[in-house]
Amino acid sequence: MDSRLYRVAKSGHVFLLRQLLNENPRLLTKLTPQGNTPLHIAAQFGHKGVVVEIYKRCGSLLTRLNSSGDSPVHVAARCGHLSSVDFLVREVLSAERISAENGETGKFDMLRQGNKVNNTVLHEAVRNGNMSVVQLLLRVDPKLACFENYAGESPLFLAAREGKKDILNQILISAPSSAHGGSEGQTALHAAVIERHSDITEILLREKPHLITEADHHGRTPLYYAAFLGDCKAVGRLLELDKSIAYVFDIRGHSPLHVAAMYGHANVIKRIIHSCPDSGELLDLNGRSVLHFAVLSGEMNVVRCVLEVAELQCLVNQADNGGNTPLHLAAIERQTRILRWLIWDERVDHRARNENGQSVFDIDESIRETCFTYRCVSKIS
Asked: Under CATH, to which class is 1-150 assigned?
């Protein structure tokens, strides 16, 4: 592209632009290395006068795409230039109206066109937080909120993930039946929970309550991620609305309790058990309980929590599919602190044997000395 034209488009000097194009109209056919036309560049810098002048001289540039598949409207929406977006959208609709009258295309087809990643103009406006542009686009075509890009991301999902509360509310008001999907099969509620946007989480729970039970491609509900993050407040709120989600396993056979144990979130475990007392009986595909997971992860605080919570006492000597109790696993994994804590708990069966016929003493002979010390101390006390 001619450097003089680029600089004029950037500066917004319409008079200089006219002089330049009057001298050489063919400058409008030149492109940047990324395939941007002069109208793309004008849309980028947002000088409406320049946008109008270029469009009037070469209206076909309105539909030209750059190497990323962006139209000039994509660029203007991304950059948040409301006046330029307004002008270009009006021209798009005018062109489509004429085409429709000739039976060539349907209304809004050009406006709904996605770029190479299938982002519409609304995706670009939402992603960049351009509220005024979002309002304009939804006023013109509310169904823009129903399109997802190739990653499965809807405008609502993007607003939730980025914490853009005002934009999210605008989408819900303008398009109550808007798409809510996101990447990896997640929903807008997944995004709000993962990013800890509690205000957006509340809005979505009110406006789209069914999202609470939806799982992503990994089989994980929003509760799973709240438990993973140790967000006790979110865990409690989700369980207030639907307790059944505490019993949902992901594709690896892990429940929200399991993941909370794996990452040391004892308070989350207590909150889940408070709402769902029998959920402590949930076992993964290997027959392992929340206590097994705590031992394997070396989470001492969770081990202590499990031993203290009455509803979880049944797990103390629970064997997995290999016959290993939490004590066996503590010895196998050499979790010394946890091993000692379990040995000194009188409820723990030191003689339990796994499927290989091994007791904890067969796994680690030195444990006998620890048990002997425990008995001596117990007799003295």
From this structure: mainly alpha
**Alpha helices of 24-164 — where are they, by DSSP H?**
38-45, 48-57, 72-79, 82-101, 121-127, 131-140, 155-161
User: Using CA atoms, how far apart are residues 182 and 161, in angstroms rounded to an integer?
Assistant: 9
- Distance, CA of 352 to CA of 333 (rounded, Å): 17
pLDDT digits (tens, 9 = 90+) for 257-285: 999 999 999 999 999 999 999 999 999 99
Q: Identify whether the C-beta of residue 41 lies closer than 8 Å to the C-beta of residue 7.
A: no
Please report, for residues 19, 85, 107, 126, 378, the alpha-carbon distance to residue 56 in angstroms, rounded to integers and kept in the order given: 15, 15, 22, 29, 94
CA distances from 134 to 48, 159, 192 (A): 18, 11, 20
Classify the C-alpha dihedral 112-115-121-123 as positive or negative.
positive
Where along the chain do its domains lie?
A: 1-150, 188-307, 316-381
| CA separation for the pair 53, 63 (Å, rounded) | 16
Torsion of CA 43, 106, 120, 161, to 10 degrees: 140
61 neighbors 71 (Cβ within 8 angstroms): no
CATH 1.25.40.20 fits domain 188-307: yes
The fold for domain 316-381 equals 1.25.40
C-beta atoms surrounding 303 within 10 Å: 26
CA dist., res. 173 & res. 18, Å (int): 43
- Tens-digit pLDDT profile for residues 20-63: 999 999 999 999 999 999 999 999 999 999 999 999 999 999 99
Q: Transcribe 131-163 into DSSP letters.
A: HHHHHHHHHH-GGGGG---TT---HHHHHHHTT
Name the pTM for this structure.
Answer: 0.90
Q: Residues 6 or more apart from 184 whose CB is under 8 A from it?
A: 152, 216, 217, 218
Cα 309 from Cα 227, distance rounded (Å): 18
How large is the angle between the packed helices 336-343 and 367-380, nearest 10 degrees?
40
The CA-atom distances, in angstroms, between 113 and each of 21, 65, 66, 142 are 30, 11, 13, 14
Whether 223 and 217 have beta carbons less than 8 Å apart is answered as no
